[in-house]
Amino acid sequence: MSALSLVALVSLVSTVFAKQLEAHPPQQQHRHWAPICSGNPTNRIRGCDKYGCGNFGAHRHGGKERHGGVDVICRDGATVYAPFSGQLSGPIRFFHNGNAIDDGVQIQGSGNSFPLSSLPGYCVKLVCIHPFKYHGQVRRGQQLGRMLPMQKVFPGITSHIHVENCDQSDPTHLLTPNVLPQPLPQIDTRWATVCAGNPTNEIRGCDKYGCGYYGAPRRNGKGKHRAVDVICADGATVYAPFSGQLSGPVKIFHNGNAIDDGVQIRNSDFCVKLLCIHPIKYSGQIVKGQVLGRMLPMQRVFPGITSHIHIENCDHSDPTSNLERGKGQ
């Protein structure tokens, strides 16, 4: 091949590649991963059950370790889909004991609709699934396999796919749909239920530590409660009352005790702080009714209290009417 022909060929290849990049810029076409389990179109993350919690960084092995992945809810036997396009490799073992859910696969790819091996991208392990194949290419949204029978191994657990980035970074923002907070229509201005097990947002009554209603006495009558305490059992799943932007962490005690954590949610209509919870993330978007985190162990700090989420409007106004409008939602 002559030097002139070689130059022409290189120029042609460069032009084609440039057009591909223009049409499918890396990490632009699909900033968020596709749904990975049938029946869970928003990649909803497992809350807390008797075996633990599904959020990234949750305690493992009695608090000695942290959860290095995210547990996406998926019923036993459900179809599993590829979150992005890429190259498969496996099998991936998690338990190494041959139990009924000890299988999985790794996907590495650009995140675009077609594989571009020269581009940086994603690498993730999907565990507790049986893939249709362990090698070759897979496309975003293509059937990848099926969920294995987790109930057989952990009866009563919220069945889920363990989703773990290869570099053990947090994949939550990639799994969460990119939904911007919009002005809510009048029919949907009620806040959602904020705690599993309390569908009516019931407010804490009075116990030996005080009362949970707005304006209740504090500091022996020298102060007023500028918030509302919504009943929530220790370890229960906490949900976003409305869609909005997260910020935090938000502390109330500033002493590092077991419940000194929380997060703020803001949109064009509301701004609220939810305290004594551990959120799955402190920034980014959240959708109304989406899993926000879990209730922290209040009994450890205040034995005998009615465990609750401290809900405080950013302007210190009374949120009671918003919570009551959420009854049954």
SSE layout and pairing:
Layout: H1 3-23, E1 48-49, E2 52-53, E3 59-60, E4 65-66, E5 70-73, E6 79-81, E7 86-89, E8 104-109, E9 122-127, E10 129-131, E11 136-138, E12 143-147, H2 150-153, E13 160-165, H3 172-175, E14 206-207, E15 210-211, E16 217-218, E17 223-224, E18 228-231, E19 237-239, E20 244-247, E21 262-266, E22 271-275, E23 277-279, E24 284-286, E25 291-295, H4 298-301, E26 308-313, H5 320-325
Antiparallel strand pairs: 1-2, 3-4, 5-13, 6-12, 7-8, 7-11, 8-9, 9-13, 10-12, 14-15, 16-17, 18-26, 19-25, 20-21, 20-24, 21-22, 22-26, 23-25
Kindly list the characteristics that best describe this protein.
329 residues, Glucose Permease (Domain IIA), 6-stranded antiparallel beta sheet, 12% helix, metal-binding, disulfide bond, signal, MIM1 protein
